[in-house]
Amino acid sequence: MCLLPGRNSRITKPKFYQVYLFEIFSLSEQKDETLKLFYFFHAAVPGLPLLGNLHQLKEKKPHQTFTKWAEIYGPIYTIKTGASSAVVLNSTQVAKEAMIAKFSSISTRKLSKALSILTHEKTMVATSDYGDFHKMVKRFVMTSMLGTSGQKQFRDTRNMMIDNMLGTFHTLVNDDPNAPLNFREVFKNELFRLSLIQALGEDVSSVYVEEFEKVISKEEIYHATVVDMMMCAIEVDWRDFFPYLSWIPNRSFETRLLTTEGRRTAVMRALINQQKKRIARGEARISYLDFLLEENTLTDEQLLMLVWEAVIEAADTTLVTTEWAMYEIAKHPEKQDRLYQEIQEVCGNDIVTEDHLSRLPYLNAVFHETLRRHSPVPLVPPRFVHENTNLAGYEIPAGTEMIINLYGCNMNKNDWEEPEEWKPERFLDGRFETADMYKTMAFGAGRRACAGSMQAMNISCTAIARFVQEFAWRLKEGDEDKADTIQLTTNRLYPLHVYLTPRARK
Ligand code: HEM
């Protein structure tokens, strides 16, 4: 599969068109001449017969490889992964066209075997195809948790979470002012507390899991529902690339996936049953689970998957973003000073609250620049073109898999000056609105855009501001260039370690 420039091609054309011999060879039996022609001229990344580009994607960071290829082949090109092909999009303009203008032709998801198993075949908001189920569950999650009124209900919980973090920072600094502290450990614990309260109505400290015949701790709950799932989501099954070999078992992959999935499901079932007992005692609370049970329209499996989705989505990307922001702030003292000055001018002696956020443009720029430079979700969960369409002037046939490389869009030299640099100032030159959540592509765009962007901003911005208001931040020696990532989302490979110095209160 490849791309043929149509008459109205608007984007800069790739530097050269290649004849992808293997594809043409494999099409030689095709009777359809137009299709043969379609396959003739295109921007395709050269690969090997049979494998295509698979051997070039061995490292589990395809977004970085896709971005390098975009410099050679242009913002839109095809790759071959075994027997399948995919179009990869690497510029904001083309990605927006796919996600907004051409949404009606590109609204279904194409999941890997790993994601199909972990998400129970699209039984979630983020992985379901656009349709009645998706519309219903997106409405549920927005109304009860993530929309404006949902967010109001959990504001005290967010404040408690940030107060707790600051309290822990003070304790750690008092205990040993010369020891660097592990930022992630503190933030992770409090964010997980918030995600449990929102999703289940309780900050669960342990739960009895029938299948394990024992009580498991909060740390074990976190691993079973968040960490292990994030690691497993990037597991690769070679049968994804050679569907005609699907009949051959891949036992090690299946055992790993099914065991992790089974553990997650057992833990979630136990957590939900514990809360159902609470509700049966007449102790209803404000939570996503309470709301969904009240709606009474879902099967038990759908309910479990949706509540798990709320836990994992709340517990991961906001941590990733805030940890990167604090790394950059600690690394750039002059930008930290500018942020501190802004907070002083706007808030004076008052503690920063969510009400101040719209009046703190530099803080807003810090948040969006972090999302741009360290796109927490580097690749949009893959889309599938379900009817012929035209994108950036290229005809794209139905059946094409589409990979939207948000990291590539945010690092594109044509859209961003010095994209490697972390420069919040770039958002203050008058071209961007403070309230615009889509200054970068980090939250996706269009009807499938992130449902949790408001929550992410509320937590991350308030936390960053309060952290800087309360302490001066400095990186642990030698950590300046530790910027490697791991997992499905761009978690820092090395957890952030920092020295904090309490600021004198005026
Ligand atoms: C900085 C933090 C976050 C980032 C960068 C982020 C990014 C994304 C991206 C890129 C998508 C896919 C959009 C698409 O397919 O076009 C997405 C979808 C989604 N996100 Fe987030 N997200 C963040 C935080 C959250 C939080 C905190 C929640 C919930 C607690 C959440 C819930 C969702 C849901 C439910 C969807 C699916 C929306 C749909 O398919 O209609 N996200 N997010």
From TrEMBL:
Keyword set, alphabetical order: Heme, Iron, Membrane, Metal-binding, Monooxygenase, Oxidoreductase, Transmembrane, Transmembrane helix
Compartment annotation: Membrane
Membrane-related topology note: Single-pass membrane protein
Single GO cellular component term: endoplasmic reticulum
InterPro entries noted in UniProt: Cyt_P450, Cyt_P450_CS, Cyt_P450_E_grp-I, Cyt_P450_sf, KO_chloroplastic
Cofactor: heme
Chief localization: membrane
A Pfam family matched in the record: p450
Gene Ontology biological process terms in this record: ent-kaurene oxidation to kaurenoic acid; gibberellin biosynthetic process
Source organism superkingdom: Eukaryota
UniProt GO molecular function: ent-kaurene oxidase activity; heme binding; iron ion binding; oxidoreductase activity, acting on paired donors, with incorporation or reduction of molecular oxygen, NAD(P)H as one donor, and incorporation of one atom of oxygen
Transmembrane is among the record's keywords: yes
UniProt-annotated binding residues for heme: C450
PANTHER family assigned to the protein according to its UniProt record, in alphabetical order: ENT-KAURENE OXIDASE, CHLOROPLASTIC
Homology family: Belongs to the cytochrome P450 family.
Protein name per its UniProtKB record: Ent-kaurene oxidase
Lineage: Eukaryota, Viridiplantae, Streptophyta, Embryophyta, Tracheophyta
